[in-house]
Design goal:
The chain is mainly beta. It has a single domain, classed as Jelly Rolls, CATH 2.60.120.1010. 0% of the residues lie in helices and 60% in strands. The chain has no helices and 9 strands. Strands 1, 3, 6, 7 and 9 form a 5-stranded antiparallel beta sheet that branches. The chain has a 4-stranded antiparallel beta sheet with strand order 2-8-4-5, with no helix packed on it. Strand 4 and strand 5 form a beta hairpin. It is globular. The relative contact order is 0.44.
């Protein structure tokens, strides 16, 4: 069975933003954040909310001006299940995010 790859692109994130709410078993296969500010470091969070609790993929990670950070690499994956919510956040609205995931992992 073919996999359904999805992407989410977000620009100028400065407050907690819901990226994806899972309705099946999904896999997050990539998260990259770039700081587009010309002179200031931005601190970023990425986390999964499940049952009212936040589980951080990364918390308060500094991304220098003009720099980027790959949160999932080297073939790693994070499995999320139905009802889980992937959120991203930054302390300044100067970040671009690219999230890649596989929708409805086949068995």
């Amino acid at each position: 069975m073919a996999q359904d790859f999805e992407r989410h692109l977000h620009r100028n994130i400065g407050t907690a933003t819901i990226v994806h709410t899972s309705d099946s078993d999904d896999a997050i296969v990539g998260i990259r954040v770039a700081n587009t500010h010309v002179s200031t470091t931005v601190n970023v969070d990425a986390y999964i909310t499940m049952g009212g609790n936040d589980y951080y993929i990364i918390k308060s990670a500094p991304v220098p001006s003009g720099g980027s950070l790959e949160l999932i690499d080297g073939g790693s994956k994070i499995v999320i299940q139905s009802g889980d919510v992937l959120k991203i956040d930054a302390d300044a609205a100067t970040s671009d995010w690219i999230i890649s995931r596989v929708d409805a992992i086949s068995t």
